[in-house]
Design goal:
heterodimer; A: mainly alpha; two-stranded antiparallel ribbon; B: alpha+beta; 2 helices
Chain lengths: 211, 67
């Protein structure tokens, strides 16, 4: 039974467009704030992971490459990668690096640091990216934030691609910081999911079925 | 006639929704953004969701006979 394709099934195109635009003008990196804010907005006000389930461009992109184009080895994601310790550990690490990026932006804004026209891959390797900055009407901190944010987006996409090839197409989703955060928000709102299939009719008022 | 097997979701579901997309029977939904849920009545136990699940939390179980 083939399901009819909807407009949001083509959102995978956003990933290559976003990364491509950042190659020519780093200020386009600011558009990535949508990928940060929208999932949180949907989780907080809608109480769902609709963004992950339907609109996530990266998830679709990885699915396309891994499943349709067959670039994934389709091996099980390692057990340690699926643990809560790793998922929340990666989220904390991600947050620390994000705030470090914000601090660097602050330093440039305050005049205590100079604009670094490079992209930092895997939070370590400085890759020259000066061609994507043409000098603008905006303050230097605007460009600094763009370089930092683009670094995060490019690094996480590369990690997603690596685990896509090594394991399952959407292995990135297992420890995606946005997915972890939104699931945490949804769990806070909704509690634990009901017991699958119920308890067989002998109700002990455990509320496990959600009733 | 119900199939012999059905998909069951374990505790490590990340609610990414990849199982929902591949289910040919539309038997899976995401419960309030927390975890996937399988409608056992609809599930035919084809195993597509099990193969797709990145968290490896979906397994195929045998239906109890004679219930």
């Amino acid at each position: 039974m083939k399901q009819k394709k909807r407009w949001y099934d083509y959102l995978w195109i956003v990933t290559p467009i976003y990364l491509g635009l950042g190659f020519f003008n780093i200020l386009f990196a600011w558009l990535g704030m949508i990928f940060f804010c929208l999932p949180l907005f949907i989780a907080i006000f809608g109480g769902s992971k609709l963004y992950c389930n339907r609109y996530c461009d990266r998830g679709q992109f990885l699915s396309l490459l891994g499943s349709r184009l067959g670039l994934s080895r389709n091996r099980p994601t390692p057990r340690w990668m699926r643990t809560k310790v790793f998922r929340y550990g990666f989220l904390i690490f991600f947050f620390i690096m994000f705030f470090q990026m914000l601090f660097t932006t602050y330093l440039v804004g305050a005049g205590a640091g100079s604009l670094g026209e490079f992209v930092k891959l895997f939070w370590t390797f400085r890759v020259p990216w000066h061609w994507a900055y043409h000098g603008t009407l905006f303050a230097p901190w605007v460009a600094q934030f763009a370089f930092g944010f683009y670094s995060i987006m490019l690094t996480s996409t590369l990690i997603g691609l690596i685990v896509m090839v090594l394991f399952k197409p959407r292995s990135w989703c297992v420890f995606c910081p946005m997915g972890t955060m939104t699931q945490w928000i949804c769990t806070l709102r909704a509690g634990k999911p009901p017991v699958e299939g119920g308890c067989g009719g002998s109700c002990a008022s455990c509320s496990g079925c959600g009733s | 006639m119900a199939s012999k097997r059905y998909a069951a979701v374990g505790n490590h579901c990340v609610a990414c929704g990849s199982c929902v997309k591949v289910c040919p029977m539309s038997a899976i939904s995401i419960w309030r953004g927390v975890a996937a849920r399988v409608d056992r009545e609809k599930c035919v136990g084809c195993g597509k969701c099990e193969r797709e699940c990145p968290a490896g939390t979906i397994t195929l179980k045998s239906r109890e006979v004679g219930v």
